[in-house]
Amino acid sequence: MQGEADRVIDARGSYCPGPLMELIKAIKEEDVGTVLAVLSSDASSAKDIPEWVKKAGHELVGVFEEDGYWRIVIRKSR
Amino acid sequence: MDLKNIVVIGGGVGGTLTANYLASKLKPELRERKIKITLISATDKQLYEPGLLYLIFNKMEESEIIREIKYLLDPDINLVVDTATRVDTSNQVVETEKGSYPYDYLVIATGSKVAPEEIPGLKEGGHWFYNLEGARKLRDALAKFKGGKIVVSVMGVPHKCPVAPIEVSFMLHDFFKHLQMRDQVEILYTYPINKVFLMDSVAELVADLFDQKGIEYKTFFNPIEVDAKNKKIMTLEGEEEQYDLLIAIPPHKGSDLVINSGLADKGGWVPTDRFTLKVEGYDNVYAVGDATNLPVSKAGSVAHFEAEVIAENIAAEIKGLPPTARYYGKTMCFIETSFDEATYIWFDYETPPKPVMPSRFIHWTKIAYNRLYWLTARGIL
After folding, report:
1. Could you read off the pLDDT of B312-323 as tens digits, one per residue?
2. Domain B4-111+255-330 has CATH 3.50.50.60
3. Interface list for chain A against chain B, based on CB atoms closer than 8 Å
4. Which one from A8, A16, A26, A60 is the annotated catalytic residue?
5. For residues B253 and B69, what is the distance between their CA atoms, to the nearest angstrom?
6. C-alpha distance from B349 to closest chain A C-alpha (Å)
7. Could you tell me if residue B54 is left (phi over 0), alpha (psi between -120 and 50 degrees) or otherwise beta?
8. ipTM of the complex model
């Protein structure tokens, strides 16, 4: 699978901004370099999460469309 | 028929209304002692929390927003003022500090509370109006404020009354305008996501009004620490923001009771069916109001509309009728846009909100409802 992650945040079934807020909670807990994947069934996450990742200075590994949901993979960079 | 025990935990909006609606629907069964309704509340008083927004500007007094629960409840309801310590779902018993209460039906109405301790430095460096103690301190701080920068910062979602941070920003504008100090006060509003509110239609209206009133705003702003000594907020995005007065909307969490009883998810919220309001995995346990994990507002109106559904279904089951009521996400929120005008939003799971043009009339309706709420609590309005 493209974009393997150290930690997967399954936020499927939760709506905007649920998946982003779940990622924000998780990123506070992890060390720099950790790769996190957010699973979201809400289409707006595929846009909003990359936008936040850029603003917060982390690395967007990729946005992958899976079967009925999106997998957004990021690396904590600072 | 054996006596059926209905136990409600929590003396806020959701608990009081559910108990009162049940008492009204099951009056004959109560009188014939076929059922017993017990409401367990940790305090003997109820606080009308929306009133805190007015209290901080000296527009409502404590005596107007606090009532003794015993005067709000139907006299046939058994009120127990005691702290529930554990729900034992295998034996269907609620344990309290002083006793234990078996149940056939349980309603969890344990609410949410602010957790300022989750942001280091916030307790020392910030104010909030989401509980009585915080609102009293903020009222004094606002009255003494000599000018400078006020930051209204939403530090986590979900939080109670999603629109209150917007309302307080608008009201700060008028408060200082009337004190002829507006030119000496900078107001900055911050929000965690990339717009000023969760819902697009409201976010657009609010951003427009912020611009008109000279209220600044920053989005994607997630505070992780407050430096109380140097009056600075540090964010996850790597920013620092200076302030003279910080009005925080602290992170919220669910009650210790549901967490300690294993009934909550990791955020402290009770997993609840969005339509039946039954707690997941239980057929006779319901959750109402702020306690649930539902993607709806943590607001009094939600607790009110949910209470109607729960009471209708429990009453139907007791009467041997099919329980067909469903909650459909119905929510109603007034939004004060100044000291004199307001708008409102009405939405459900499928219908997004459409705010109407702010008007004096809607503001007066809100001011009237601040008094009429005590009729809602009694199950009358």
Report:
1. 999 999 999 999
2. yes
3. 14-18, 20-21, 24, 27-28, 48, 51-52, 55-57, 78
4. A16
5. 24
6. 11
7. alpha
8. 0.81
Q: Where are the domains of chain A?
A: 7-75
Is residue A76 part of the annotated active site? The answer reads no
Contacts of A64 (CB under 8 A, 6+ apart): A2, A3, A70, A71, A72, A73
Equal CATH topology for B4-111+255-330 and B115-250: yes
- Asked if the Cβ–Cβ distance from B220 to A24 is below 8 Å, we say no
pLDDT of B150-175, one tens digit each?
A: 999 999 888 999 999 999 999 999 99
Give the architecture (CATH level 2) of B115-250.
Answer: 3-Layer(bba) Sandwich (3.50)
Task: Please write the tens of the pLDDT for every residue from B31-49.
Answer: 999 999 999 999 999 999 9
**Which residues in chain A have their CB less than 8 angstroms from residue B157's CB?**
17, 21
pTM for this predicted structure: 0.93
Residue B1 has pLDDT above 70, yes or no: no
Q: Chain centroid to CA B208: how far?
A: 26
Tell me which H or E stretch contains A8: strand A7-10
Comparing CB atoms, the residue among B198, B237, B238 nearest residue A17 is: B198
Please indicate whether, in this complex, the C-beta atoms of A17 and B157 are within 8 angstroms of each other. yes
Domain ranges of chain B: 4-111+255-330, 115-250
| CATH T-level fold of A7-75 | Translation Initiation Factor IF3 (3.30.110)
